[in-house]
Amino acid sequence: MNAIAHREEKEVAAELAGIWKSLTKEEALTQLAAFKGKYHLRYREAIRSLSEDEEHLLTFYAFPQVMHRYIRSTNAIESFFSNVRQRTDQIDAFTTETSCLTIVWAVMQDIRLPKIPVS
Predict the structure, then answer these.
(1) Nearest of 61, 57, 63, 55 to residue 23 by alpha carbon
(2) Model confidence over 83-113: pLDDT tens digits?
(3) Radius of gyration over alpha carbons of the chain, in Å?
(4) Which of 80, 35, 81, 76 has the alpha carbon at shortest distance from 57?
(5) Under a CB-based contact definition with an 8 Å cutoff, are residues 61 and 24 in contact?
(6) In whole angstroms, what is the distance from residue 46 CA to residue 68 CA?
């Protein structure tokens, strides 16, 4: 998105979201090809970046559909690091690396992520 003009960010983001929310990988690949065709002249760098990572961008389709929204977002990772930061920011300085890792481990053990329903 860094390569996209500000005036078109919402439109482009909506089209990308449509790709990621496709029900099947084949449908997503079709939409991705259309997206690349539409923007390849205006946003060469963005399309190059998408093309380089295309194999990895749609990996979540290898998992059951109920898991897709959990896998394709980084919310769980961001939440984890936010929890660790909140806990470690309260401590001025760690005496050893081990004490830091102990706090991080304790925070990790205390985090309760929602269960992913698998059918």
Answers:
(1) 61
(2) 888 888 888 788 888 988 888 888 888 877 6
(3) 19
(4) 35
(5) yes
(6) 24
